[in-house]
User: Fold non-specific serine/threonine protein kinase from Sphenostylis stenocarpa.
Amino acid sequence: MALKYLPSYTMSMSFLVVFLGGLRVQAQDQSGFISIDCGAPADVNYTEPKTGINYISDANFVNTGVSGTIIPETINTVYQRQMMNVRSFPEGKRNCYRINITRGSTYLIRTNFLYGNYDGLNRAPQFDIHLGVNRWYTVNIGNASTPQVNEIIHVPSLDYLHICLVDTGHGTPFISAIELRTLKSDTYVTQFGSLEYHNRWDLGSNNSYRYDVDVYDRFWYSYGDNKDWKQISASIAADSFDQNHYKPPEIVLSTAVTPVNATAPLVISWEPQNPTELYYVYMHFTEIEVLPKNQTREFNITQNGKPWYQNLSPMHQSINTIYSRSGINGEKIEYSLEKTKNSSLPPIINAIEIYKVINFHQTDTHQGDVDALTTIKSVYGVTRDWQGDPCAPVAYSWDGLNCSYRGTENPRITSLNLSSSELSGTIDPTIANLIMLEKLDLSNNNLYGEVPDFLSRLQHLKMINLENNNLTGSIPSALVQKSKEGFLSLSVGQNPYLCESGQCNEKRKNKKNIVTLLLASVCGGLILLVAVAAVSWTLIKRKPNDLTVDQREMTPQCTEQDDSLHQFKKQLYSYSDVVRITNNFNTIVGKGGFGTVYLGYIGDTPVAVKMLSPSSVRGYQQFQAEVKLLMRVHHTNLTSLVGYCNDRDYKGLIYEYMANGDLQEHLSGKHNKSKFLNWEDRLRIAVDAALGLEYLQTGCKPPIIHRDVKSTNILLDEKFQAKLSDFGLSKIFPIDEETHVSTVVAGTPGYLDPDYYISNRLTHKSDVYSFGVVLLEIITSQPVIARNEERTHIIQWVGSLIANGDINAIVDSRLEGDFDINSAWKAVEIAMACVSLNPSERPMMRMIVTELKETLATELTRTKLIDPDIRRDSVEPVTFNLDTELTPLASIVPPELATGHMNMSKMGYTL
Ligand SMILES: *[C@@H]1O[C@H](CO)[C@@H](O)[C@H](O)[C@H]1NC(C)=O
Ligand SMILES: *[C@@H]1O[C@H](CO)[C@@H](O)[C@H](O)[C@H]1NC(C)=O
Ligand SMILES: *[C@@H]1O[C@H](CO)[C@@H](O)[C@H](O)[C@H]1NC(C)=O
Ligand SMILES: *[C@@H]1O[C@H](CO)[C@@H](O)[C@H](O)[C@H]1NC(C)=O
Ligand SMILES: *[C@@H]1O[C@H](CO)[C@@H](O)[C@H](O)[C@H]1NC(C)=O
Ligand SMILES: *[C@@H]1O[C@H](CO)[C@@H](O)[C@H](O)[C@H]1NC(C)=O
Ligand SMILES: *[C@@H]1O[C@H](CO)[C@@H](O)[C@H](O)[C@H]1NC(C)=O
Ligand SMILES: *[C@@H]1O[C@H](CO)[C@@H](O)[C@H](O)[C@H]1NC(C)=O
Assistant:
């Protein structure tokens, strides 16, 4: 009964006319929608009558391109209004739309193209579409009268989205409409990558639907005839129907298919173009008939012949969505729905969605650099064709820029050339934000005012050219000094009113005295050589600490959180205050890599005072600056910094006090006051810690990399709520302290990302790795590095046990099996994904949070407790409806683990 899907993932678009708008009683909310009619006149804003969707002109989203209208005679159908105009881009290689969105939300993004011979050339073009800095797909218009539509489910990482049309030399790019829809954020979650539309079928129906039948405006297509299937349908009363987060429309669910031969399986299969392509599948089921008492419908689902989900009995007036938790690939992908022995009725399926994973690898330019350039562009009204991302992809980087590209890091701007660009005004301070700048050329413009001192603070700057402007005053002595020492080539000629410091008076009279500080003499050359040697030596010596330097450039701005600790009005404490607060350092509550921690009281509130060893901390100013930044970071799952001491050599940090110490104490059970953590406690702690880390990564801009996630850095308050501590501290410590370099920059042995040894860089994925190790500790209560002779690493240890399929051997034996098996397998699976050797295979924190919450929910269903989002100390329990969205993992053993096909090479066993 196999059927083959169309190999192409371009949608057939006859639907634009046949789409049923539905029985619109009142217009649905379009709050998460952005619907753009490209090429429409600037102030256009209308409601398309068939769908009720509100479209606006693209004028506010793009600065280039020309409007056009399709020629009605070339098309043989009447399309909706948004398809009638186009914007085309005859000029420039890359033209971009910039659309403001909410970073971190899940979007369905759709681009629409109808050529309609708008240019009268009768030559349908081919061009590329980029989503941000990554190529998304190639538009290849085969037929002037057939629209092409592409769709992707994507979580943008910036506050705006660039959709760029790239001219690849096969005709002028154009676009008809862009549609963005916000989806619920815990739906369509992948381990990595975005989901490109492959198919979405309303099975058993002869109609196709979109908004406002579908609140998310997904397109549902009729599957059409299949001789092995029988269509069945019944009406579903929307008001008594129990929806889930995926919200497939009731009309779509009211039809289904079932095998004609009641004992045969129902098979859905396709052959991917490329067997390495990964697919995600979402199947929606509902029982559309009220079954008599003596009838049952129950079936198993297999995926490529292996059990995927067992004993499914779709519910009446409610929905089961069964979806992939990881991608599936192969020469052929086949799902088979087979009736179980007990079932009197054949299987049914109401709707199915199939997506293909697209993994975008290219990273955006460093956000600080982008912001700086955006400001510079607007301050000077730069007229160059600066669109999309400044550095990426390399082939389309902005004119006048050079960037550095290092592995998976964000590209940085190393050179800015705005020579002869008709700039006028003073030298803008924003330039100082381009921290990695090595060359700056502002020559041949009309700049006036002084040469600003901030230029001397750009540490990497090797060349400044300010020739032929009208700058005045004296050149900052720091620049002159650097130049004399051979660190900087400074050209300031043809600025008649400019003089070197201290010589300004003579200068006025002697116009010829043009200052050029390029080193030319033999003597200068010698100095240069020495200087170069000195620089290289310093670089070698300081290599690991470049990290620290990089971090310092960023000013984290984190999304607002409730600040429950506002009670501390004062933030800066003197040494004598600290002596008083700690009662002369009476009670030691901990010792860490950074110094000793004392118990203290501010008023009646207990605090933890961490005194830093005086020699190890950066200078007064830097310390103050970093601490003030950290003080702005607030989240329930991060220990709050409430004050600090910066009194001569005494430097200390004052944190909220965490009554129950650190996680490791409790896991090891070594301390007499430690509490035995049951499975639920452990999962809650894991969720808390994951939320803290997720916030550092996505709530802060630029993201804060913790660098030292470990179980002793997860602290527990009096309610055993977990908070991450010690984040951001690496920035406080100076470069040269050998001892601290190893603990601060390079994390802690056992938790350290193995990729660090290759790349020499710690990234947010390194934190994910360390978190995976912590999760394994939480599950097993084993030490990270065994105290046996082999010094077995916990990852190795767990890995060897997974193969045996015995979860009880993995989970802490002191739990005596008192945990949900599925929940435990899933936790193990999450942890093992986090510790993948290849950083790009480690899941995003967002995914980890979602999965851990599911794991907790599974455990709570067992213990009859309720919603994972409701903390145990809150008042009203709420019923958590786990039944409506099932993952195949609800079977006894996770399929990936049961089949013995786990790819061991993907895991970080080697350490
Ligand atoms: C378009 O018009 C609708 C209804 O008049 C209004 O609610 C909406 O804000 C307008 N949109 C824009 C972008 O002007
Ligand atoms: C997008 O956001 C930026 C910065 O917040 C703002 O300046 C711009 O006007 C916004 N664009 C549109 C089309 O709303
Ligand atoms: C283009 O598609 C239309 C149907 O949408 C069809 O009638 C026409 O023959 C096609 N033209 C070509 C050249 O394939
Ligand atoms: C769909 O069309 C086929 C024949 O064209 C018809 O037999 C069938 O009943 C229709 N199904 C529905 C649900 O209307
Ligand atoms: C129905 O399916 C069963 C199981 O696949 C098969 O054995 C039987 O021959 C089929 N009957 C017909 C009439 O095709
Ligand atoms: C179920 O019961 C009904 C009467 O209540 C009877 O007509 C029907 O044949 C029974 N079906 C089966 C499969 O036993
Ligand atoms: C369906 O799954 C159950 C549970 O694993 C199994 O016992 C049964 O044999 C399966 N039935 C079929 C028809 O594969
Ligand atoms: C250059 O600056 C001087 C002093 O500020 C001013 O008098 C002069 O007009 C400026 N020249 C030009 C060409 O702008």
